[in-house]
Amino acid sequence: MTVSIDLGTMKLGQPAQMDLEELLATRLLVQGNSGSGKSHLLRRILEQSAKWVQQIIIDPEGDFVTLAEKYGHAVVDAVGTEADLTMIAARVRQHRISAVLNLEGLDADRQMRAASAFLNGLFDIDRQYWYPAIVIVDEAQLFAPAAGGEVSEEARRSSLGAMTNLMCRGRKRGLAGIIATQRLAKLAKNVAAEASNFLMGRTFLDIDMARAADLLGLERRQAETFRNLDRGQFVALGPALYRRSETVTIGAVETSARSSSPKLMPLPDVPHDNIDELLFKPGSDEDPRPAMAPPPPTTAEVMQQLANLRLDREFGGETEPQLDLDPGLSAEEREAILHQILTDLLDDPDAAYQPVSVLYQDFQVRCRIEKTLKTTPDLQEFRQLLAVARAGVDAKEETLDEDQWKQAGIIADQLPEDMRGVYLLLAKAALGKKPCPTNLELATAYGTRSPSRARFLLTYMEERGYLVCANDLRGNRIVTLKDLGVQTEPGNPD
Fold first, then answer.
1. Do 425 and 390 form a contact (C-beta atoms < 8 A)?
2. Are 56 and 74 in contact (CB under 8 A)?
3. How far apart are CA 363 and CA 376, in angstroms?
4. Which of 240, 422, 424, 494 could be stapled to 23 by a disulfide with Cβ–Cβ 3.0 to 4.6 Å?
5. pLDDT for residue 228
6. Got the DSSP string for 220-243?
7. Closest by CA position to 202, among listed 60, 40, 47
8. What is the rounded CA–CA span in Å between residue 25 and residue 134?
9. 222 and 92 together in one domain
10. Burial of 453 (0-12, 13-18, 19+ CB in 10 A)
């Protein structure tokens, strides 16, 4: 049985048909300047063929996610890692689910990486899952550029290789590529050359008109006809379309994109006297500009602080009172008192960046002032308590699993003392299902203002098998704590 889909009408009003089975074997290239109706054409093809074949759309602008409501397409937002997208793509083919890969909101480099991972997942699948499917790539010049641009060379090579596989080797795996581009001159020639069917829309640049005419087998003087096409009109040629070039007008669609062409509307009536207030008055809901961090203390300042503390202790003129014993003080109460003392100590913004020796002296003074503790913790115990306090974890915090938190403490004890707070901060975020801490938060837990030191700490712990760092396609960091079997939510490292 031959399955044909209705594209619209021809010049004389006859229905314009496309042979779907032939399309699966020969692929399609759509070209037209912005506003020529390419997205409308792709949507018409998708709607007309939805009941016949599996559909997979690489959507850089999120225009085709509206197909999900009427036709049941799964929307795959590019929020995970590249490995996640490859796995999802394999499952899409295994279960023959039509899907839209939504790349909206990603920059060009991450869009290329995401599309490459997804296309590779569709391509590298066992033979038993080589079911027929059409793969539509909108704005294909972004994923198969003719020349390098502002994106990284690694991303460009990966994306171009995936697009080449789709158009050159995809047919045997059941994948029929349909690529749409604004400019043929910007599309890699080895990708465009694999298409045998063409739908050429309105084009104005000479270089694009000449290339379109060459693909259609037209004379150069006939290339001028592409300038005269109306919106929604395309010149069709190919084994799935017509043996000779024909002009077709694309029919109506049942769904619509989330974005559309802008419409003219009158400007609002704004009094000129209020313009300055509207533009320059700070709003109450806007975040204030962050203050610059104070510079780190110099070595001379640190030595002077140590000298002052020593003089205050030795020549303060008062005898240190002996602490009274409290026989009713339990271990939990003692821990709570110590935690409160440390919390008050770290409330000082500069305390996070003080050496441990300076903090310990201040801590001893505060413990003596408390007068309810029998003994002051030694330096070793203080370092352990300080690591927990710098992680910002309450000893009685109910949101964390007690057994898992104890295990995190045991694991942290295997690290150097100054890194324990960093590990516990990550453990707190992972166990609490919170975003990964920023570089500045990790650096503060370590006792420094340098975000680069935070990246070094993560590398150090990753090399020793304590954790695994990964970035999702939006640049957010995800840290997996291997021994605990948990991971943080994605968080912006900056």
1. yes
2. no
3. 9
4. 240
5. 78
6. GGGGGGGGGPPTTEEEEESTTS-S
7. 40
8. 10
9. yes
10. middle
| pLDDT digits 0-9 by tens, 452-472 | 877 888 888 888 888 888 888
Q: Is residue 407 part of a domain?
A: no
Q: Are 137 and 56 in contact (CB under 8 A)?
A: no
**How many structural domains are present in the chain?**
3
Verify that 386 and 440 share a domain, yes or no: no
* Helix locations, 165-242, DSSP H: 189-192, 206-216
pLDDT of residue 114: 92
Bridge-based pairing state of the strands 28-31 and 197-200: parallel
Residues 6+ apart with CB under 8 A from 106: 78, 114, 473, 474
Domain C-terminal end among 220, 250, 280: 250
pLDDT of amino acid 384? 62
At 63, is the pLDDT very low, low, confident or very high (cuts 50, 70, 90)?
Answer: confident
| C-alpha to C-alpha distance for 70 and 57, rounded to whole angstroms | 16
Are 216 and 117 within one domain? Answer: yes
- Owning domain of residue 219: 4-250
CA distances (Å), 346 to each of 160, 258, 354, in order?
52, 50, 10
| pLDDT given for residue 319 in this prediction | 42
Residue 290 above 50 pLDDT? no
What is the pTM (predicted TM-score) of this model?
0.64
**Tokens at 49, concatenated:** 């063929």
Give yes or no: residues 422 and 386 share one domain.
no
